Amino acid sequence: METHIKTNETHLISDMCVKTVDIDKNAENVNNENKKYFACNICGQKFDQKRLLKKYFHTHTKEKPYSCVVCNKTFSLKCNLYRHSRTHTKEKPYSCDVCHKDFSQKDNLNMHFRTHTKEKPYSCDVCGKGFSQRGSLATHCRIHTAEKLFSCDLCYKDFSQKGHLNEHFLIHRNEKPFSCDICGKKYSRKYELKVHFRVHTNEKPYSCDVCHKDFSRKSNLNVHFRIHTNKKPFSCDVCGKKFSQKGHVNTHNRIHTNKDFYSPDV
Length: 266
Description:
With 266 residues, the chain is an alpha+beta fold. Among the domains are: 14-89, Classic Zinc Finger (Double Stranded RNA Binding Domain, 2-Layer Sandwich); 122-173, Classic Zinc Finger (Double Stranded RNA Binding Domain). The chain has 10 helices and 17 strands. The protein has a 3-stranded antiparallel β-sheet with strand order 1-2-3, covered by helices on one side. It has a two-stranded antiparallel ribbon with strand order 4-5. Strand 10 and strand 11 (158-159) form a beta hairpin. Residues 38-65, 66-93, 94-121, 122-149, 150-177, 178-205, 206-233, 234-261 form the C2H2-type domain.
């Protein structure tokens, strides 16, 4: 008898497949090389062995006969259980030939390898930007759709990425787990630390296409660029005067709220 994770697994699989999988003359076919194969009656997926078809059929029935002995999580395919088990054993059998980084799953190794080859097989239909991972493309597409699936339970601010929500939540908990190795300043978000570190390195990766002035923050570049476009998106609620920066509006508002600005000499 084949060894299984649970003792009654063979019986459960056999009963399920005999009742549900109809491997008859229509399911068993012959290809051009006169080689037999077994096709799933639901999706047409082909296998060269009958037992593989039976195991695969669990993906349609939603039955999960393979159970993890550590956390009891269940799976429809044994190979998925094996891959999951590495989260407990910390086994990483797949290694990158270039940088020798190890991975628990072959798919993760393949995705990682694109960092070396610069391959980006997934591209955005709107702007054409390429990505090495399908998930990264899906996340990027929310920029165009303005879709924000993740919401903060405390302030109800919405985010397009779960990682951004998790980082935002640290603000409410006043947690700052990211600290600068040079000056010790702490931040709640990793990105804020990355931007801060440019103070020490004097790195300015963002450059103006018009005057070639460099900036350490993209937001500063965006604000600067309004000098060339003469764009003024911020306006005073009282007098309607427009400004290129929000901070300038706040400064201007003191004219309307501060008595010192209403002297007879003005």
